[in-house]
Design brief:
- This protein is an alpha+beta fold.
- The protein contains six helices and eight strands, in the order ββαααβββαβαββα.
- The chain has an eight-stranded mixed beta sheet, sandwiched between helices.
């Protein structure tokens, strides 16, 4: 495996069968606003650092701030079937000198949440991190009360490594952070299982899986 330091990720398009990751841009604002608002928006944003956007202009302003941050590389998650940006995610807490990187600030809207589009969005990011950039460690962190996020981390193959108590102060309250990660030594087997699961033959005519994803550290 490559040794550190590793290159910093740069905005780029990552193509899959069902999902495409595109560098986040203002052109994504209308669709991303739709994915961020409407019924259930409060629950989707409960554990994110930002709030549901009040209107499309708020989404445009958030995209501008995200682009200016400099310490994160944001991608719009495009559903290839519709061509619409139905979510967002970021590579963040990037430490090239140690080959460590995190995926976070994830919002997969209702059109893609718990579908093969969202799973492939995670897979595309992991493949880029390990295969293209040669990182050693890929992290996932979330509020310890965020049970859906913890379940997703485990399903995707991230191992639980511990709880960072009073790690952050977010939206006027304490955040104990649950810490998960996968390693470069685990990735080849995980990659094979992701590709097996993502194969079109694993889905029926409605897009429902025939067998579950089986990645375990």
């Amino acid at each position: 495996m490559p040794t550190p330091p590793r290159p910093r990720p740069q905005p780029r398009v990552l193509e899959g069968r069902y999902a495409r990751l595109e560098p986040l841009a203002q052109a994504h604002a209308p669709a991303l606003y739709g994915a961020s608002s409407g019924p259930g928006a409060a629950a989707r944003f409960a554990y994110l650092l930002d709030e549901p956007p009040a209107d499309a202009g708020a989404t445009q302003a958030w995209i501008a701030r995200a682009a200016a941050a400099g310490d994160r590389v944001y991608a719009a998650v495009v559903d290839r079937a519709s061509g619409r940006a139905e979510g967002r995610q970021a590579l963040m807490r990037i430490v090239p000198e140690h080959g460590v990187i995190e995926i976070g600030d994830i919002l997969w809207g209702p059109a893609i949440a718990r579908t093969r589009v969202a799973t492939e969005a995670l897979y595309l990011a992991a493949r880029h991190v390990f295969d293209d950039l040669g990182y050693r460690r890929f992290e996932w962190k979330c509020h310890d009360r965020n049970e859906p996020s913890k379940a997703a981390a485990r399903r995707f193959g991230f191992a639980f490594e511990g709880l960072f108590r009073q790690h952050m102060w977010v939206k006027g309250g304490n955040r104990d952070t649950a810490w998960f990660a996968m390693l470069d030594s685990e990735w080849p087997a995980f990659k094979r299982e992701y590709e097996r699961w993502l194969d079109p033959g694993n889905f029926d005519g409605s897009g429902l899986q025939r067998s579950k994803l089986g990645v375990r550290p």
